[in-house]
Each structure stands twice: as C-alpha cells, then as structure tokens.
User: What shape does this take?
Amino acid sequence: MTSSDKGRSPKESLEQSLKEMKMMREGKMKKATWEEFRSSSRNDN
Assistant: This one.
C-alpha cells in the first residue's frame, strides 16, 4: 500500500492495482524488484 492508497475503499484500491498490473504487463510502467520494494517500504517508516 502506498501513501496514495490511504482513504481508498478496498474496491478502489483493487481497481487501481489491476490498472497498474496491466500497465506493467504492457511495458508502460516499471516493475519494482523485491529489493526495490523492501527498500522503499523501509524508507516510508
């Protein structure tokens, strides 16, 4: 969950996640590696 997900309903969050997944598969959005995700989540705290 990103900071932009706060205040969203579960339905809205799921819809956004599916849009992002589609964009990643089409190559329009960069996929984050596990290490990148872990690093960014540690920096959020």
Q: What stands out?
A: Residues 3-44 form one domain.
